[in-house]
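Please check what follows.
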Amino acid sequence: MLGLRQRTKTAADEQQQQQQLQPQIVAPTSRPQENDYAPEESPVKPSLDEKQDSAAASAASQFDMAKMKVKESESRKRKIIDRIVYGVLMISLLLIILYGGHVYTCGLVAFIEVLLFQELVRVRYNENFSRIEDTIPLFRTTQWSWFVTAIFYTYSDFASDIVKRNRELHHFSWIVKWQTLISFGIYSFVFVLTIATLQRDHIRFQINQLCWTIVVLFLTVGQLKYVMHNIFNGLIWFALPVLLVVSNDIFAYVFGMLCGRKFIRRPLIKMSPNKTWEGFIGAFFSTMVFGWYMSRFLAQFTWMTCPVNKFTFFPDVLDCDAEPIFLEAKSIFPSQIFELIPSHITRLIPGIVEICSVDRDSALLTPCVSGSPHVHHHFELETHVYPIQIHFLALSLFASLVAPFGGFLASAIKRAYGVKDFASMIPGHGGMMDRMDCQFLMALCTWVHYNAFVKIYTVSVSNLLYLFKLLSDSDKKMFIAEVEALMKK
């Protein structure tokens, strides 16, 4: 019995020990995720239909991208074609108006000034239309009143100058007498109207608009004030500066397309990221060459060179004594210039002449002859140029280096107001401001250059006669006595 109990106890102990050795499973505190204990699924292979659908979608996507590229290319080609066609039409229209005469050319400038003012003030008007429409009275009226005031003063001042210069128009001297008074009267009326329309709740906005209007008037009317004088001083002083800016724009566009960012990757100016250094440099040299030869060509036509001082509405033959700058002149370059250049390079210059001394005698000089015992003395270069070519070389320099910044200003204005073009009246070009942005500075520079280097004196016989008529009887006698005294000397 004792042995049986021991065996039973031993079996019970072994069973208890085995239970203690088995791992204990603790119940989870949270519900397991659905895939925590799920067996890994093997990847499902796409069916044949799915492969075909994927390939079709990829092909369709590539086709759409190719179609978009084709559309962009066609759009670009169409824009280039429109730019060329309408550019040729604008130049042709300019030539026709130039043939019509000086009065019609002045009318063209006046029409352009109206369009320029309209496009520039419309930039801010469109942006603030909801604010302006019902809250600010006479907003557009005051803007255009300032424009009319500026135009009247500009053109009446020009008309007064023409009356003074033409003896046959002296009976219109009342224009000269009352021009300043009438201009001031109009200015005073517009000034009062502007102040009277200010609204207390919108005064800051209205002052900003007034400042913008003044800036626009300065850009358009102010810088173009003397373009009428350029026209009546000779059409060449209007037409050729315009063509210099146009040619510079064309050359910059061509060189930018062909060589843009191939040599200099840095943009020319941040305001116009499409402008490149290659286009700017290529246009500089091309415009200089264009100005040199075009001025020589136009100097041969009296229609372009003769000044006028009367208003004629029908083309007539212009006959005048040509100014010296329009006559061919002989020029000899200083020989000292060629001493700075190696002689083997100097001999390659077209038209260069090598001068030699006979028996080393500096008093006996003759052109060198190959094989003769003469000794080299100096080089000479004789050229036959029109002095007008030198003047327009300087204007070409300005058209290439300074005038483009007018275009950069226009780009900054468009970027500030989020517009691509100022208008869409000229296909491929945009608005009038997009074409005239560089012409403002060019016209003003031409007038300054003409008065500084070409026609330094501004007094004429007609001017003296006009002033003589304004003198009192005693002053007239004194003036005649002074002139007779000068004539006897």
About this structure: The longest strand covers residues 375-385. Strands lie at 329-332, 352-358, 361-367, 375-385.
